[in-house]
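in:
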């Protein structure tokens, strides 16, 4: 999913995680964290792009825009930190 998202113009970084989906109980929803290169990029554009490139169950239901991502000393995204409470500069869009 991340490789497909990386093909979208206007993205700097785009890790994806699974989060519990309250609507369906045990199912997992896909959540994408987007660091924008283009400030005009929005959640609808991300979802429309994913719909054309991915199976419907892989399309992110949640998109959170961040200014930066938590990374380790070697530059790897720390997914455990993404699962915790969002930072004050996070902007989330349900799709």
């Amino acid at each position: 999913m991340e490789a497909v998202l990386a093909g979208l113009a206007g993205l700097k970084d785009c890790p994806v995680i699974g989060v519990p989906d309250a609507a369906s109980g045990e199912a997992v929803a896909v959540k994408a964290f987007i660091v924008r290169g283009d400030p005009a990029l929005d959640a609808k554009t991300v979802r429309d792009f994913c719909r054309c490139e991915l199976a419907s169950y892989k399309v992110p239901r949640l998109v959170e825009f961040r200014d930066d991502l938590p990374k380790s000393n070697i530059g790897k995204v720390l997914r455990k930190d993404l699962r915790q409470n969002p930072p004050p500069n996070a902007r989330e869009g349900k799709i």
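note: The first helix runs from residue 2 to 5.
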